[in-house]
């Protein structure tokens, strides 16, 4: 029997919910850069709820900056796909109709979409490393190949900063209003971060353009949260069972979904409240909470869990000692936060434990371990500095740092090698090449070679000693024994 591919809402038979609106009746008003699973589980699902509730021409033109495969698959399905939500109670399916068009690795088509008069918002999920922004200067990182390429080829930019700056320039020249730029990556102060990057890039093109962007383009900050593992054959089989159709774009996620957004949209916006988004004047405290508590604990458990032979986060949480270390980290990170009237941090930490323990979500520790150099500064080092300043115990943060350094060795305790998967992999390898297997030397070498450790941490002797001692013990005794004694 041939299985029908999901292409029309009318094809769907089964328990999956279908869009409560006619997708074809709504035009596109958003361009999204970074068409991965997270976008489809989060912003696209929220936009779907907004379209169902308030309507509007707010469908999404999704751009995959590098890969063609997701776009080919989406196009074959009229951009419809199934979103599964999993927990201990079971799996629920919902077909999302919010994506109107998909574009793959095509700078010309992307620029055209960005320059459409109807485009009023550009959202982004390109991961921490995807911007090509130098964290020290805040401007474009000229050593990033795509930045160098785009500055030399302003007619065909392919990176995020180049695309946004060139499109804004074209809109300005055509007398069109600028779009609002909404960063949805796990970075602190992500609106200002992207604004600095785009204006820095524009300054290389034309100082007048940079000034115009500063004065006219809104870059609201936002905090996003939804644990979204990579889709698997089980995802596709369950989507089939719930829709009666084969769906090569199905993705899965947890029931929890949070989006806190600075309410600064001069060109209007969808009614994302309908999907549960919270609009506030200042996102900073929410961002700190999410980056330090959820993401910080995630990074700690990813390195420690991966090196302890745990493939999934749920397996880490099922191990009494590892779970104890996760709880310790959640509490320590929460202690570095300023109070937030709407949130009880104890409850937040307990909910996170439950989310990490979700038995139905197969979230790989190795996936979270990726790109540590891009994640540790905001997740581990920033709270560590606050902990030092307030006299709080810094051991949980030093432990997380030592586990990342241990991970940087690229072999587990049995000697089995793995890819480090980090944009600074070459630098990490060069720093550790020919280093004796000694915690003090390894910690020193990484800190000298990589530009990511805050000076105040580098100069803090207690911190240095703690990190090096934990790392040394881990190398000598193995990760599992250290986990047992640490817990
Ligand atoms: C994770 C995040 O991969 C990672 O680094 O910590 O993707 C995390 O799952 C999300 O931020 C949850 O909202």
Task: Please give a handful of descriptors for the protein shown.
alpha/beta, Rossmann fold, binds D-mannonic acid, five-stranded parallel beta sheet, three-stranded mixed beta sheet, N-(1-d-carboxylethyl)-l-norvaline Dehydrogenase, domain 2, 11% strand, 2 domains, 487 residues
What does this structure look like?
This protein has 487 residues and is α/β, with parallel strands linked by helices. The chain has 2 domains: 9-280, NAD(P)-binding Rossmann-like Domain (Rossmann fold); 284-486, N-(1-d-carboxylethyl)-l-norvaline Dehydrogenase, domain 2 (Orthogonal Bundle), CATH 1.10.1040.10. The chain is 48% helix and 11% strand. It contains 21 helices and 11 strands. The strands form 3 sheets. The chain has a 5-stranded parallel sheet with strand order 5-2-1-6-7, with helices on both faces. It has a 3-stranded mixed sheet with strand order 4-3-9, with helices on both faces. β3 (81-87) and β4 form a beta hairpin. The protein starts with 27 loop residues before the first strand and ends with a helix. The structure holds D-mannonic acid. D-mannonic acid binds at residues 186, 225-227, 295, 298, 367-368, 375. It comes from Celeribacter halophilus. Keywords: NAD, Oxidoreductase. This is Fructuronate reductase.
């Amino acid at each position: 029997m041939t299985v029908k591919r999901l292409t029309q809402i009318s094809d769907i038979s089964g328990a999956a919910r279908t869009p409560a609106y006619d997708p074809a009746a709504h035009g596109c008003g958003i361009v999204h850069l970074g068409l991965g699973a997270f976008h489809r589980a989060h912003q696209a699902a929220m936009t779907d709820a907004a379209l169902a509730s308030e309507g509007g021409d707010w469908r999404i033109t999704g751009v995959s900056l590098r890969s063609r495969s997701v776009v080919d698959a989406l196009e074959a399905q009229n951009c419809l796909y199934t979103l599964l939500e999993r927990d201990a109670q079971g799996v629920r399916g919902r077909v999302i109709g919010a994506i109107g068009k998909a574009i793959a690795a095509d700078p010309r088509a992307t620029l055209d979409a960005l320059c459409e008069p109807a485009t009023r918002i550009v959202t982004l999920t390109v991961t921490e490393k995807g911007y090509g922004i130098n964290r020290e200067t805040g401007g474009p990182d000229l050593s990033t190949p795509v930045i160098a390429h785009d500055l030399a080829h302003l007619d065909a930019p392919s990176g995020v900063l180049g695309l946004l700056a060139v499109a804004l320039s074209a809109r300005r020249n055509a007398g069109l209003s600028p779009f609002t730029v909404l960063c949805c990556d796990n970075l602190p102060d992500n609106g200002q971060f992207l604004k600095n990057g785009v204006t820095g890039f524009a300054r290389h093109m034309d100082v007048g353009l940079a000034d115009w962007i500063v004065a006219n383009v809104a870059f609201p900050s936002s905090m996003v949260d939804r644990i979204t593992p990579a889709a698997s054959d089980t995802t596709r089989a369950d989507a089939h069972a719930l829709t009666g159709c084969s769906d090569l774009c199905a993705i899965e996620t947890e029931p929890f979904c949070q989006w806190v957004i600075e309410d600064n949209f001069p060109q209007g916006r969808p009614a994302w409240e309908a999907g549960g988004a919270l609009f506030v004047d200042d996102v900073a405290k929410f961002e700190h909470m999410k980056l330090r508590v959820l993401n910080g604990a995630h990074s700690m458990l990813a390195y420690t869990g991966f090196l302890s032979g745990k493939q999934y986060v749920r397996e880490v949480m099922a191990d009494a000692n590892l779970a104890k270390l996760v709880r310790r980290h959640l509490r320590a990170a929460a202690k570095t936060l300023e109070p937030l009237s709407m949130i009880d941090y104890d409850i937040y930490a307990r909910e996170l434990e439950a989310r990490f323990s979700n038995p139905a979500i197969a979230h790989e520790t190795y996936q979270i371990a990726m790109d540590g150099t891009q994640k540790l500064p905001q997740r581990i080092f920033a709270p560590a500095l606050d902990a030092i300043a307030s006299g709080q115990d810094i051991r949980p943060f030093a432990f997380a740092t030592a586990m990342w350094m241990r991970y940087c060795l690229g072999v587990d305790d049995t000697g089995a090698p793995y890819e480090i998967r980090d944009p600074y992999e070459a630098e990490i390898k060069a720093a550790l090449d020919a280093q004796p297997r000694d915690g003090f030397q390894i910690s020193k070498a990484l800190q000298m070679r990589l530009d990511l450790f805050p000076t105040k941490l580098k100069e803090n002797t207690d911190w240095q000693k703690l990190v090096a001692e934990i790392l040394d013990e881990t190398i000598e005794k193995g990760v599992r024994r250290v986990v047992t004694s640490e817990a």
